[in-house]
Amino acid sequence: MRDERSLFINIVALLILSVIGFYIYKVSMDTGKGIKITDNITPQMRVADRFMNKNVIKEESKYVWGGTAENTSANIVTSVVVDYRLFDTTLEVIVLFVTILGFGFVIPKDKRKIIKPTTILNRWAPILMILMLMIGGYMFVNGHLSPGGGFPAGAIISTAVLIGVLAGRKTLSQKTLKIIEAVAGISIFSLGIASFVITGNFFQNFILNDRIGDLFSAGLIPIFYGLIAFKVAAELSNIYFEFYEEC
Amino acid sequence: MNSIVFLIVIPLIAAFLSLFLGKNDKILAYIVTLFNIIFSILILFSGKIPFNVAIGGWRAPYGINYAVTDLTIFFLVLVNVAALLALTSVREIMEYQFYSFYFVLLSSTNGIVLTGDLFNFFLFIELSTFAVAGLISYKRDRLSTGAALKYLILSSTASIFSLAAIGLIYKTLGTLNFADIANKVNNLNEASLSLILILYISSLLVELKIFPFNMWVVKAYEASKTSVNLFIHGMLGTAGIYGVLRILLMVFSKETGKLTLSGNLSSILMLFAFVTVIIGEIGALTEKNMKKILAFSSMAQLGIVLFGISLGSFDALKGVLYIVISNYLAKFVMFLTVNEFSKVSGSTNYLDMKGLGRRYPVLAISFTISALSLMGIPFFAGFWGKISIIGNAVFSGKLELIGAVLILIASVIEGVYYLRISHTFFSQGHEREGRISRVYCLLPMILALVILFIGINPDSFENIISILLDEIKSPEKYIKLILSLK
Amino acid sequence: MIEILRVFLFGFFAIFIGLFFMGIGRKIIARIQLRLGPPFYQAFLDVGKLFSRKSITHNFVMDLGMVMSLAGLVATMLFVPIAGHTAIKTSSNLIVIMYLMAIGYLGMAMAVAASGNPNATIGVSRALTMMLGYEVPFFTVMLGLIIINGTSSLELIANSQAGSILNWNMIKFPLGFIAAEIALQAMMGEKPFDAMIAPAEIASGPMVELSGKYLGLAFLTHAVSIFVETAIIVNLFMGGASNIFTFVLKQFEIYLITVIIEAVFPRFKIEQAVKFLWTVPMSIALLQLVLIVF
Amino acid sequence: MVEIFIIPLVTAFLLAIFIRNKKVVWPLFLISNLYILLKLWTLFGKWEIEKTIYTNYELFGAKLSFTLSNNPLGWYFAFFSAVITLVISVFSLGFNQKTKENVAPIWMLIIFSNLGIFFAADWITFFMMWELMGWTSFFAITNGRDKALNEAKYYLVLSLLGASSMLIGIILLGALTGSFEIFASAYGLVQVFYSEKALSIAAIMLLLFAFFIKSAIFPFYMWPSKVYAVGPEDYITFMSSVMIKYGIYPIAMFIVPVVGSLDLPKILNTANWIQYFVGYLGAISAVLGTILAIFQTDMKKLFAYSSVANMGYILLGFASMNIVGFEGALFHAVNHMVLKAAIFLTLAAVIFRTGESEMHKLGGLVYRMPITFLTFLLGIIAAAGIPPLNGFGSKWMIIQALMSQKMIIFAIAMIFASTGAFMYLFRALASIFLGQLPDRFKDIKEVPLTMLIPMIIMMIGMLLIGVVPGVVMKPLTTALRAVGYNVNIASWTSLEGALKNSTIDLTLVFLIFLGGFVISAIMYILGNKSETVPQEDNYTGGEYPEEWGVNADRFNYSYSFYQPFKEMFEPLLEKISIDEFFASIGRNFEYMSATVQGLFRRGEGAVLLFSIGVLLLILGGWII
Amino acid sequence: MAQLFILSSISLLFIGLFGVLTRKNIVKILIALNIMETGINLLLVAFGYVENGIVPILTSNESIMNLTKMVDPVPQALVLTSIVIGLGTTAFSLALAIRYRYNHNSLSIRASEEEEGVNI
C-alpha cells in the first residue's frame, strides 16, 4: 500500500467481492420455487439432449455406430461447434482476425536487436517443423472423430512457424500469410454461400449420407476445420512475424 | 428469406478483401454499406415480415436463428443508414485496417440486431467491442491508446460477467435461444433470475453508457476521429439500445413486454438512469471540447432512454423511441457540423469556432435544431419523447417523480451548454483560411429537416412507433414465430 | 362658463388663504422665538415684489416645470371639497387627490433640476425621499378611514362625520389623527422634516436657483399646498364644515399646530426623518388600522 | 385565423434569407407586422373562429390535437401587443441603420409565438409556443454579441426551468381533468379540486411558477435588469412592453377563474390563502422592484426594475379577486405596454445617439433631443400613475379593489411602490435629460424621423388612453363579456371603482388639470419678463476651476442620487440577495462539472465503478 | 466433483476481479483478466459436468448406449469460443499496452492522468 488511494481501493474491492460472494451464496441457498442455479440438471433436460441423440430435425430418429445420422461427426462437441452452432465458430474466427489485425496495427514498429540462432536450433528446426505440421494436420483431419480440431491444429501449425522464425528460417512472407488468412476466411463464407445456393440454408451441411466413425465422414466439418486451422495458423503466425519483421 | 445472412456475411467477406485493396477500400466500404441499406430496405418492403431464419437448417432452440420482426428491421435500417452517414465523414485516406474494423463493426452491429441466440449475441457484442477498440486506437497517440485500453479492459470484464450469466442460463434453462428463454423464464427461481439478470444487465449497460459502467465513453469519443464517434454513436449505440429493448423487455420479462425485474432492480436501474442523465449534463456544462460535450450529452440521452424503459409503461416506451430517433439524428448533425467546423478552426474547442455560423449558417442552424431537439423543445422530434416519458413518470411513483424532475433540470443544463455553443457559432469571429464545401452542408441540413419534420408532424413517425410498440406488447408472438418453425 | 368661473374663484381663493396662513405663521413663529416678526400680510408683499422683478431662467424646462408645479396643486385643490363645495362636480376621490398632488412636486423638481445646480438636485432628491417617508403613514391612516366608510370619496367621508363633535374622526380615531398630523408636518416640509430645504446646509435646496417670478410661483405653490393639505385633514378628521369660515378656521387650527411644532423643533437628517416616519407614525397608523379593520 | 400564423413564419424565413440586406429586412418586418395588426382588427368580435389540427400522437390514451381559437381575452392581449409591435417596428427601421447584427428573423419567430400564446386553446399548443418564445429570446438577447451571453444564459435557465415546471403542471392538469383544453381543464379542475386537493394545488402552483418566472415576479425578479441591460434596444422595448405580459395572460385566463370559483376557507374574513400567496408575491415584487430601481445607475436596469414593480401591481390586482381589480390588472397590462414601450423607445433613442446607458454619464439631453424628452416626460408621468396620463386609471382601479377587499398590506405596498416610483422616475429624468450637457454630447442631434414618429405616436397613445380610457376599456369589457364576466363601462371617459360613489371621469380630471394649468400660466404671464442665461453662470461663477481637473463633464451630480436612502436599505438588501443565491447555485454546478470531468479523465477506476454498479444492482435485487 | 469445480472457478474469478480492481500495472491487470477468463471457462465446463461422466465422443456402438453418461457438449463448445476470445483480448490488449508504454514511458494506468493534471 504505497499510497492512501491504493489502500482505499483495496478495501473497496474486498468489500465488493465479499458482497458479491455473499450474494452468490445467498442465491444458491435460496429455497424459493422454480429452477434454481444449484439444481442438478442433466444434459438430457437441455438442448444438448438433441445434439447427443442427433435428432434435432426428426425427433424419433435413432442412429447406430457406422450408420448415417443428421450430423455424422462422431465427436459431439465438434458437431456442436462446427455444425449446430457453426456461425458462432466463424464469428470466433473473425474475433481472432480482428484482434490480430488490431495487434499488428497498434504495436509500435521500433528497432529490435536480433540474436543469432544457435546451430542446434537452426539444424533441428526443419525436423521439428515437419513433425509439428504432421501433428497439426492430423488434428484437424481427425477433428470430427477425436478431441482436437481446427483451433488446436492451427495453434500447433503456427508453433511450427514460430520455430522457423526462431531458427531464422523465414519460411513464409507476411504477404503470403495475409493471403492464406483471407482466402481461408473467404472460403469459409464461400462454402456457406454454396450451401445457400445448393440447399437454401446458409452453412447447411450439404454432403450427406456419410457413415459415423469414418475418416471421410461428417460432410463439410473436416473442410471447415481445415480452413479454420489454416486461418488460425496464419493469424497466430502473423503475431510472430510482427516481431520478426523488425529484426 | 434465408438470404438475410448476407447482411452479416458480405461485410465480413469485405473485411477480408479490404486487406488487399489499399486505397480502393473506400469504394468497397461504400458498396458494401449501400448493399446493406438496399438489402434491408428490400426486406422492409418485401411484405414477409416477420420471419425467422435458421442457420444451417437447424431449427430454433437448437441451432442459431435470425429473426426479422418489425423492431428488428427498424433498427436494422437505422444501423445501416448510420453506417452510410458516418462513412461520409471519412475524407482523408485511411489505412486498410480502418476499413477492416469498419466492416467487422458493420457486420457485428447488423448481427446484434438480427440474432435470436444469446451466445451469438454475446459474440457479436465482443466482435463489435474489438472493432471499436481498434477504431478508437486508430490515431495511435497517447490519448487514443489509453482510451482503447480502458475500453477494452472494461468491456472484457463486462463480457466475463455476461458469459457467467449465459452459463447460468444454460445451466438452469438448458437453452440459449431468446424465444426459448422467454418461454421458460417463468419457471426460473426468483433469486436465481435476479443473479443472472444482475450479471447480464451490468454488461449490457456498458454498451448503453449508463453511469457507473461508462467510464470509457468520454475518453473514447475524445480520442477518436469524428467518423469513429459516429460509428460508436450510430451503429454500436443504436444496436445496444435494440439489445436492451429486446433482452430486458422481451426475453427476461415475466409479464408481457414490461420490465418486470425482481426486487428493486428496476428501481436501481431507474436510479442509474437519472444519475446518468445528471452526470452527463453536469459533465458537459463547463466542458470546452466539443467531442467531449457530445459524449457527455449522448450519455445523458441514453440515460433518458433507460429511464423510459424502466418506467415499464408503453406510453413511456413510445417516448423512448422518439428520444432514440431524435438522439440518433441530432448527434449525426452535431458530429458532422463539429467535424467541418473543427477542420476550419483547427481545434475541437468550441470557443475557436467563433463566427463560423455566420459564414456557414446552414450548418450552425442545423446544429441548433439538433440541440433543441435534444433538449426536448417543442417543434422538434425530442419533445414528443420527453413529454411522453415525463408524463408517465409523474404518476408512477415517488422515485419516478424525482427522476422526472431531475431529467427536466438536466435538460435545462443541456439547454445552457448547447445554446451557448450555438451562440458562439453566431457571434462575431475573425476571418479564417479554410473553406467548407457546400456539399458537406447538405447532409446535416437534411437530417435537421427530418428532425423538424418529425417535430412538427409527429403523425409521420407515430405510425411506425405504434407498430413497434405492438410487437413489444406481445412477446408471445415472437416466441411463437421462432419456436414453431420446422 | 360658470364652471370656468368657479375654477378661477376656487383657485385664487386657495392662493389667497394659503398666503394668508403663511404670513400668520411667520408672525407666530417670530413671537414664539421672542422676535417681533413681519406683518401678517408680508407674504402678499413678497409675492408682489417677486412677480414685479426681472428674473433669470436657464431654459424652457424651468419655465414649464414651474408652471406645471402650480398647475398641479391648483388642480388638486379643485378636487378638494371646501365646506362641501367643489369647483366642479366630481367624486373628489382621495386617491386622485394624492396622485394629482404629485404632479406639482414633479414639476417643481423638474424645474430646479433643469437649472443644473447641485444644491437644487440634492434638495429634490431629499424631497422625494421624504415624500416616500410621509406618504406611507398618511395613506395608512387614509386607508383605515376609507375602509370603515366604504368609500374613497373625500366628500362622503366628511359628510359621514356630520353632527356633533363626537362624530369627528379626530375623536373616534385619535391615533390616526396623531399619525396624520405628524405626516402632515412632513408633507408641508416644516421643521423637524425640512431637510430638503435646509437653508443653512444646501442654500434652500430647490429654491436656490429660483429668482423673480419663478420664486414667486414657488411661493404660490407652497401656499396652495398648505391650503390643500390642511383641507384634506379637515375633511378627513374634522368633518368638513357647513360654511366656508368655519372651514378656514378649522384649517387654521391645523396649521397652527404645525407652525408651533415648526417653531420649537430642530431638523432631522433625511434618513433619520424617513426612519422616524416609518416607525412612529407608521406604527401608530397601523395600530389604528388594525383597530378599525378587525 | 390561420394566415396570421403563417405570415410570421414565412416572413421569418424570408428575413433569415435576406438577413444581410438591411434595406429589405426591416421594411419587410414592418409590413408583416402591419398585416398582422390589420388581420387582428378584423378578428374582433368573431370569437367563434377556431382551427384544430388532429394528430395520431397519443398521450394518456387520448389523441392530441392542437387548437387555436380566437378567444376574447387572448385577442385583447394580441391586438394591443400587435399595435405596440408595429410601432416598435417603425422605430427599428431607423434604429437598425447602424447596428451590425440583425435580430429580425428571430424576432419574427417570437411574434409568431406571441400570437400562439394568446390564441392557444389547449395547453399543449400553449406550451409549444411558450417554449418557442423561450429559446428564441435567448438568441434575440445575445444577438451574436459575447457580452450579452451571461445575461442571456440567466434568462434561458429561468425560462427553461419555468417551462419544465409548466410541463409537469400541464401533465398533472391533463391527468386530473382528462382534458388539455384550457377552458375544459379549468372547469375540470374546479370539479376535482376537493377530491384531489394536493395534486390540484400542485398543478396550480407549478403553472404559477412558470408564469411568475416569465413576468419577473418576486423570486425571479432579477432577469429583466440583467437582460435589458445588454439586449438590442429595439428588441428590449418589445420584451419589456409585450413579452413580460406572457405570464399575466394565462393567470387572467386560467388561474383567476379557477381560484375565483373555488370555495376555499378565508383568512380573517378577507381572502383565501391562494389570493394571499399571489398577493404577497406581487406586493414583494412591487416594493422590492421599486427599492432596487431607486438604486440603479444604468437607465435600462432602472426601468427593468420598474417593470418588476408594475408586474407586482398587476398581480395585486389579480390577488384582489374582485372584478374591478381584475379589470384594472388587465387594463394596467395594456397601459404598462404602452408606457414602457414609450420609455424604452426614448432610451433606445438616447443610446442610439450617445451610445451610453449609464445615467450619470448623460445629462442635459433635453436641449438636443426635445421630442425625445417630451416622450420620456409623458412616459414617466404615466409610469408614476399621475392622472392625466394612462398609468393612473388602472392603478386607481387596482387600489380601489384592494381597499374594497380590505387587503390593507397590499394597498400599503402599492402606495409605497407608486410613491417610490416618483423617486426613480424623477431620478432618470433628471440624470438623462436635465442638468448639464456633457461636452462630448454637445454636437448630437435629435433622432431621425423614422424614430420620432413612433415616439410621437406613443405620446398620443398615452395621452389618449389617459384621457379617454374607453379606448382600451371598451374592447376589454367586450372581451370580458364574451368570456362570461358581467362587466360594463358606463362611458368612454369614466372608470368604475369598487367602492361607494367612486366613479371618476378621467376627461374631467384632465380638464380640471387644464384649468389649473391656465391659472398657473396666467400667474406666469403676469410676472415680469425673464432672461435666459447659461447654466454655469449662476453657481460656478461662469467658469470651471480647470486646475482642479474639474470641467463640465465632471460636474454632474447624479451618481449616488439617493445615497442616504440607499444606506438605509443596504443591510436589508444584502440579506435577501436572490442574485447571490442563484450565483452560488451556478458556482456549485461548475464545481460539480469539473469533478465529473475529472472522474472521466482518470485512467483507473473504470472497473471499480463497474463493480460498484454491480454492487448497487445486487443491493437493489437483494432488498426484496 | 462439480461443486469443487465451481468453487475453484469462482475463487479464480474473484482473484482475477480483485486483481483487475486493485492493480495499477497494465500487464498485471491483463494477467488478472486472464485469470478471470480461465475461471469463467472452468465455470462453464463445470456447469456441463455430469457425475462420473464420459467424453461426448462416439467411439463405438456402446458409447451410443451411454449417451446419458456423457457430459454436456454445449458448454465445451462455448468454452472453445471463449478461449479464443480470451486469446484475442489478451493479444490486442498487450499490443495496446506496448503502445501505451511506448507513448507514456510507463505501464501504470495512472500515467495518462498524471500528465493531464487530474486531481480528485
From TrEMBL, chain A:
Topology term for the membrane: Multi-pass membrane protein
Pfam families from the UniProt entry: MnhB
Main location group: membrane
This protein's UniProt keywords: Cell membrane, Membrane, Transmembrane, Transmembrane helix
Stretches assigned to the Na+/H+ antiporter MnhB subunit-related protein domain: 121-236
Membrane-spanning segments: 7-25, 89-108, 120-141, 147-167, 179-203, 215-234
Location in or out of the cell: Cell membrane
Protein origin, superkingdom: Bacteria
A GO-annotated cellular component: plasma membrane
InterPro entries found in the cross-reference section: CPA3_antiporter_subunitB, MnhB
Family: Belongs to the CPA3 antiporters (TC 2.A.63) subunit B family.
Protein's recorded name: Na+/H+ antiporter MnhB subunit-related protein
TrEMBL record, chain B:
Location of this chain's protein in the cell: Cell membrane; Membrane
Sample GO molecular function, one term: NADH dehydrogenase (ubiquinone) activity
Coiled-coil boundaries: none
Keyword Ligase in record: no
Domain of life, per lineage: Bacteria
UniProt KW keywords: Cell membrane, Membrane, Transmembrane, Transmembrane helix
Transmembrane segments: 6-22, 27-46, 66-87, 99-115, 121-139, 151-173, 193-218, 230-253, 265-286, 293-314, 320-339, 360-381, 401-419, 439-456
GO cellular component: plasma membrane
Boundaries of every NADH:quinone oxidoreductase/Mrp antiporter transmembrane domain copy: 116-406
Membrane topology: Multi-pass membrane protein
Pfam families: Proton_antipo_M
Keyword Repeat among record annotations: no
GO biological process, one term: ATP synthesis coupled electron transport
PANTHER family: NA(+)_H(+) ANTIPORTER SUBUNIT D1, NADH DEHYDROGENASE
Family according to the record: Belongs to the CPA3 antiporters (TC 2.A.63) subunit D family.
Identification of the protein by name: NADH dehydrogenase, putative
Protein species of origin: Caloramator australicus RC3
UniProtKB/TrEMBL annotation, chain C:
NAD recorded as keyword: no
GO terms under cellular component: plasma membrane
Source organism of this protein record: Caloramator australicus RC3
Topological category with respect to the lipid bilayer: Multi-pass membrane protein
EC number: 1.6.5.3
Protein's name in the database: NADH-ubiquinone oxidoreductase chain H
Cellular localisation: Membrane
Superkingdom of origin organism: Bacteria
GO molecular function terms noted in the UniProt entry: oxidoreductase activity
Alphabetical UniProt keywords: Membrane, Oxidoreductase, Transmembrane, Transmembrane helix, Ubiquinone
Database matches in PANTHER family: FORMATE HYDROGENLYASE SUBUNIT 4 (PTHR43359), FORMATE HYDROGENLYASE SUBUNIT 4-RELATED (PTHR43359:SF1)
Chain segments annotated as transmembrane: 6-25, 60-82, 94-115, 127-148, 168-187, 214-238, 244-264, 276-293
UniProtKB/TrEMBL annotation, chain D:
UniProt domain NADH:quinone oxidoreductase/Mrp antiporter transmembrane: residue ranges: 120-418
Highest taxon of source: Bacteria
Subcellular location: Cell membrane; Membrane
Membrane topology type: Multi-pass membrane protein
Membrane-traversing stretches: 24-44, 73-95, 102-120, 126-142, 154-178, 198-223, 235-256, 276-295, 302-324, 330-353, 365-387, 407-426, 447-472, 506-526, 606-623
Chief location bin: membrane
EC identifiers of the protein: 1.6.99.5
Protein name per Swiss-Prot or TrEMBL: NADH dehydrogenase (Quinone)
